[in-house]
Amino acid sequence: MKLDFTLICSRCERETDTGGTPNVCTECGAPLLAVYPLEEIAKDFRPESLEGRRWDMWRYREVMPLAADEEPVSLGEGGTPLLSLPASAKTAGVRELLVKEEGLNPTYSFKARGMSAAVTRAVAGGAKGFVAPSAGNAADALSAYGSRAGVPVRVYMPKDTPPLVIAECRALGAQVELIDGVISDCGVKAREFAKQTGYFDVSTLREPYRVEGKKTMGYEIAEQLGWSLPDAIIYPTGGGTGIIGMWKAFAEMETLGWLEPGKRPRMYVVQSSGCAPMVRAWESGAETAEPWKDPETIAWGLRVPGAIGDFLILRAVRESGGAAVAVSDEDLLAAADELLHHGVAACPEGGATLAALYRLRADGHIGPDDKVICFNTGAWIKYVE
Amino acid sequence: MKLDFTLICSRCERETDTGGTPNVCTECGAPLLAVYPLEEIAKDFRPESLEGRRWDMWRYREVMPLAADEEPVSLGEGGTPLLSLPASAKTAGVRELLVKEEGLNPTYSFKARGMSAAVTRAVAGGAKGFVAPSAGNAADALSAYGSRAGVPVRVYMPKDTPPLVIAECRALGAQVELIDGVISDCGVKAREFAKQTGYFDVSTLREPYRVEGKKTMGYEIAEQLGWSLPDAIIYPTGGGTGIIGMWKAFAEMETLGWLEPGKRPRMYVVQSSGCAPMVRAWESGAETAEPWKDPETIAWGLRVPGAIGDFLILRAVRESGGAAVAVSDEDLLAAADELLHHGVAACPEGGATLAALYRLRADGHIGPDDKVICFNTGAWIKYVE
User: Fold this and answer.
1) From first to last of its 385 residues, what are the pLDDT tens digits of chain B?
2) B361 to chain A nearest CA, in Å?
């Protein structure tokens, strides 16, 4: 199968072969990123090329890790709504507020995008099983795509993961292992299991393609805004694949000639004050983040004490002129409630982005003329105890 | 506000004014249907007109109950995936099997489409509150769209409705009343409350626009299949708005010149053997259905003992050369499980359509060369007890 991209290490820039099931850079252990021959692709691939195509993330297939004529392992991920919230925009005092409603993906979270891309390539590369640690939303997504591909899945989750998510993984046919610990503890178990069995480890940024799925959020908002971008993006950040992916997408679209260069949004990372390693690193000016001890937050997607892509997240925030901000569980829940009362069934992490908007506006990071996109990354219903 | 359609009674053909908030025909009590000047619309509205439009059901706005330049009350409903299931197609012995994944709508069911259209028109017509009876999926959909429009909502549901659905309605800001009975008992309460308070009654086919929202499922599958239709559609039927709506959509598209006339699919209605009023009516050759006594099924969307649009459902089934079939709870749950193991998080009603496919194929209603669409109408997760 001929793949028209290369895999380059995000730290040492060493190239890794796309054959089989690559993980991280074998030289330095950093995440690998897919690099496409964009100047070549731009000759035939234009916004008009998208007309009449499927409404999911694979409409951007020329800049996705997919061979010509290859069918992805898909459940219709992407193509999510971008909803205007005029009342909250007024309260916040910004020109326009849009919510990207990622809860309408398969298994009701943004994780579907990454898993569709990762499973597609890994199955083509010969994977016979999948394993991943998860705070919850990655687990049922992987369970779904593994089943879609007919490949067994094992997921490791903290034992206090909401029962509905655990039940959904099992209903989708996955083996579920519950761990007395947080996602990093689950990660250790997942890697052990992968080593023992040969199952492919789909942990965040330990394989190159989840970020390619996530980057389609960037392509979509550009397309939904008529090939323009907002002034600011506020994104709840655990492993950070979305921030890294969208920042990559904006650079790609500039090279393709689809976006005017130099007009990228400021990227704002939101975490919970009970687990804010990126915020601490950003405030101290560090290039990487120290792991957070005893992480505690009701927004379990944010209960991620450390991220292998920390330097890439911090780089995107700095290059964009953004910031990293922590909000309390109380504030993020109140903001989620506000979204619910406007009809958007937001998860706590989605609420965190609205809470962060209020904070960033008050602090002057975001101004009255800004057009802002907040991300709701999952469905309220999955969080019911 | 100028509306370019008329409302015609589906039984006596009397016209009703589109102003205010019309319910049923004031002359004979039957459902009203919107009739558009299609020959006129066809002059400017073509499949190519859809290029670059939003990915939701309002992309078909020329044939929707919407004034020029009016913004609908929308949460991004529609634009759902159409997924190929080759393994189940092989098991069933049909040429192709596709699943329309309606669980990826706002509030995770097909009901979002109807509520978006109904709430849009009723708010424009002056409604100050909404009330509806529901087996579950209509209730949280109405709760979301009411909140989106800033209009209060009251829903009446059977007291054994799954707790997650009840919780979601409340989280979205609705008043929930639980009734010791089935949906028809809830309907009595809803109509009483509407009479007392002036809240607008959004019951199935007691207002003209939910069916307009549902018909977009027909437009979408035609667009997704490159302006062609399958040989057979299998649809789980409670109130029947989807069957009536899609049948209407196919007729409209023929008039618009978008579909070749005379190539409509056979429409198959599925119910549970514990509540099968349409199946009984179809088998006896009746034009309307007697209410089902003591309805009992785990698929609560099918626990609908009678339907005001029964004669329209039966007409669509007969005109199309289809059939009505009942499946047991055991069979529909096994089929839902099969869908889950292919990665599609189907609800019991969705499972019923696959169970019906096996039955209809065995009975010879559906043949080996048929291309079949089954509808998954909601998300598995909402049904967890």
Assistant:
1) 789 999 999 999 999 999 999 999 999 999 999 999 999 999 999 999 999 999 999 999 999 999 999 999 999 999 999 999 999 999 999 999 999 999 999 999 999 999 999 999 999 999 999 999 998 899 999 999 999 999 999 999 999 999 999 999 999 999 999 999 988 899 999 999 999 999 999 999 899 999 999 999 999 999 999 999 999 999 999 999 999 999 999 999 999 999 999 899 999 999 999 999 999 999 999 999 999 999 999 998 899 999 899 999 999 999 999 999 999 999 999 999 999 999 999 999 999 999 999 999 999 999 999 999 999 999 999 999 8
2) 24
ipTM over 0.90: yes
- Would you mind telling me the total number of residues written for chain B in this entry? 385
> Residue B176: which H helix or E strand, with range?
strand B175-179
Closest to B234 in 3D by CA, of B94, B84, B342, B100: B100
Q: Which residue in A has a C-alpha nearest to residue B74's C-alpha?
A: A83
Cβ–Cβ gap A76/B75 under 8 Å? no
In chain A, which residues have their Cβ closer than 8 Å to the Cβ of B338? none
**What single string gives the DSSP state of each residue in A305-359?**
S--TTHHHHHHHHHHHT-EEEEE-HHHHHHHHHHHHTTT--B-HHHHHHHHHHHH
Contacts of A335 (CB under 8 A, 6+ apart): A327, A351, A352, A353, A354, A355, A358
State how far the Cα of B100 lies from the Cα of B83, in Å rounded to an integer: 6
Q: Which of B48, B104, B168, B380 to mutate to test the interface with A (most CBs of A within 10 A)?
A: B104
Beta strands in chain A (DSSP E): 6-9, 15-16, 32-35, 82-84, 96-101, 130-133, 153-158, 175-179, 200-201, 232-236, 266-272, 323-327, 371-376
> How far is A177 from A186, CA to CA, in rounded Å?
9
* Chain A CB contacts of B148 below 8 Å: 342-344
Inter-chain touch A104–B105, beta carbons under 8 Å: yes
Within 8 A of A382 by CB-CB distance, chain B residues are 381
Output DSSP code: residue B95.
S
For residue A3, count other CB atoms closer than 10 A to its CB. Answer: 17
Per CB-CB distance under 8 Å, the chain B contacts of A80 are 76
User: Letter for the amino acid at B142?
Assistant: L
Given a contact cutoff of 8 angstroms between Cβ atoms, the answer to whether A385 and A350 are in contact is: no
> All domains of chain B, ordered by start, with CATH?
6-54 (no CATH), 82-109+208-383 (3.40.50.1100), 111-201 (3.40.50.1100)
CB hemisphere CA count around B277 (13 angstroms)? 25
Full-model pTM: 0.97
List CB contacts of B343: < 8 A, sequence separation 6 or more: A75, A106, A144, A145, A146, A147, A148, A149, A172
Tell me the chain A residues in contact with residue B145 when contact means C-beta distances shorter than 8 Å: 343
In DSSP notation, B364-383 reads TSS-TT-EEEEEE-BBGGGG
Residue A233's nearest CA partner among A73, A96, A51, A35 is A96
Query: Which ranges of chain B would DSSP assign to H, the alpha helix?
Result: 38-42, 86-92, 111-124, 137-149, 163-171, 183-197, 210-224, 241-256, 277-284, 310-320, 329-340, 348-363
Distance from C-alpha of B308 to C-alpha of A16, rounded to nearest angstrom: 64
Contact A363, A375 (CB under 8 A): no
Q: What is the largest CA-CA distance in chain A?
A: 55
Closest CA to A61 of A50, A75, A73: A50
> Residue A384 and residue B106: Cβ atoms within 8 Å?
no
How far does the CA of residue B343 sit from the closest CA of chain A (Å)? 4
Q: What six digits make up the tokens of B99?
A: 């699943």
